[in-house]
Amino acid sequence: MGISAFNPTRFPGSISGLLQVASLLALLLLLFKAAQLYLHRQWLLKAVQQFPCPPSHWLFGHKQEFQKDQELQQMLKWAEKFPSACPRWFRGNKLTVLIYNPDYMKVILGRSDPKAHDIYKLVSPWIGYGLLLLNGPTWFQHRRMLTPAFHYDILKPYVAVVANSVQVMLDRWEQLISEDSPLEIFQHVSLMTLDSIMKCAFSHKSSAQSDRNSHSYLQAIADLKDLIFYRIRSIIHQNDIIYSLSSNGQLFKQACKLAHEHTDQVIKQRKSQLQNETELEKIKRTRHLDFLDILLFAKMEDGNSFSNKDLRAEVDTFMFEGHDTTASGISWILYALAAHPDHQQRCREEVQSILGDEASITWEHLDQMSYMTMCIKEAMRIYPPVPSVSRELSKPVTFPDGRSLPKGIIVSLSIYTLHHNPKVWPNPEVFDPFRFAVDSTRHSHSFLPFSGGSRNCIGKQFAMNEMKVAVALTLLRFELLPDPTRTPLPVPRLVLKSKNGIYLYLRKLK
């Protein structure tokens, strides 16, 4: 009988040899990776050597310096010690250079560097690649296509729509307020701005303020902002597979699903309306289309280059940015006026003198609200709705003071720190609307609530109009007072929020 080719006595030895080879290869790969990381860290250290910063741990970076929800306060301390810019190490080889000098801001915002991919990619499963995340020619194409949605002929009738949504909110506040307890306003303001943006930009017919699905959508947005913020700062959650298996990853997936269901329903409803020939003909005769109609007509006319994925990404992006940043702005403005009653009363008197006996606010009234506009801008200086934006340098940059950074470095434009930089704004914590008086002078890039350059906020005029309408109508109905036991604590998420809510006492005016 012949000997079998499979000899069990030799098999263990073969396995042992394979394991030894595999172990050796794994060790070599590990050493190669370690050397690669070491060399990259040395390159980073050399790249930012002109920018001093506090000592950092080789693995955990500046984590110890940034205690939970104290990031903004810590950055202000750094700005006092390190002029113009300072590197912040997140971990190992992960760093961003914080900049908070207007000359530096002007240089970066005047270039065409892309959004920082490692940061913004974490947002992409939620909002996709719309205007916020796109770069290059595709971004330019989408921006040019959507700009007509913010023509003044389009914005004019929106004033009445927004005013109606604000009155719904204020009516609700009248039912809820009492002499003894303050009201947390951010959730209410968020529902109002969501209602406004859905009616204005997405031709939505029903009120989001009475729709339970809108409450679910807002909760999903709140969860997504928190989850993304903490993921950016987590070492173990950078890997997509590991994150998807974690409890936070599961929550993120569920919140994305809820957000997408909301926007899908809005798209589906508008598509159904456009099946009506009368509605379709009316839209075709319109000189300027609303935001969603521009997207739907682009899809119909150029289905090859404008996909369903592109459509949903733009809707997800603007649904979020069109309501959440404005809600943040309005909430902080109302708090600032509550904390400064003299300025609040002067704004109220201005609105009363402008409106006189007229029933509601019109487009023509908005430009007459000069003092209230100053107060709105000063509130947005102290509480910028978007606290920072990031760019990845596509080529080297040299700043006006001679310091430079190479290609590949991520820079974070800290708008919050810029707005609180005492070298830019004397006594930055003092609420002084006259900083924005007509005859005042300031650096072109010292005030950036809507970012700047070619990638500034496409909806900034819509947002400013909505803030004026909301603040004016609120001041006509209520006196605002702060809750001294709950001073809001600003914390950075994708937008500026308060860790402990924004609570105000509301007194109905006679």
Automatic annotation (TrEMBL):
GO BP: arachidonate metabolic process; icosanoid biosynthetic process; kidney development; lauric acid metabolic process; linoleic acid metabolic process
Named cofactor requirement(s): heme
Keywords: Endoplasmic reticulum, Heme, Iron, Membrane, Metal-binding, Microsome, Monooxygenase, Oxidoreductase
UniProt cross-references to Gene3D superfamilies, sorted A to Z: Cytochrome P450
GO cellular component: endoplasmic reticulum membrane
GO molecular function terms listed in the Swiss-Prot or TrEMBL record: alkane 1-monooxygenase activity; arachidonate monooxygenase activity; heme binding; iron ion binding
Residues given in the record as heme binding sites: C457
One Pfam family this sequence matches: p450
Tagged with keyword Methyltransferase: no
Compartment(s) where it occurs, according to its Swiss-Prot or TrEMBL record: Endoplasmic reticulum membrane; Microsome membrane
Recorded family membership: Belongs to the cytochrome P450 family.
Name of the protein: Cytochrome P450 4A4
